[in-house]
Structure prediction request, 137 residues.
Amino acid sequence: MKVKFTILGEPAGKGRPRFTREGRTYTPEKTVSYENLVKLEYEQQCANHRFPDDAQLDVRIIAYYQIPKSTSKKKAKLMEEGKIRPTKKPDFDNIGKIVCDSLNKRAYNDDAQVVDAQVRKFYSRNPRVVVTIQEAE
Prediction:
């Protein structure tokens, strides 16, 4: 079984935990909002499919960043062709973390089941994140 879904908008990464003056930790609002968006898109596009608790999973994530408006036409064309790729934040690991953490208890029991993963970054006129999950071979 393989599921694939798309999260529209600029890719986001997992934010670091924040601390109150009293020393309690909390998750930044931007992170919580994006995690909720990932959950919602998964539920809508994948019919809430859940992999077995003993499944070993392979997760592939392709993050498409918006081409900056100030970019020259020549450079924008190279970006669209994938010859120039994003080296900006969020980092690839933070993109993977926010997506995989969001899908705990939804697509699978725990993201510890992910035994193979890949995060790729490209530019596009249509920013989005495309996620594919399947059982590892």
About this structure: The CA atoms of residues 36 and 49 lie 17 Å apart.
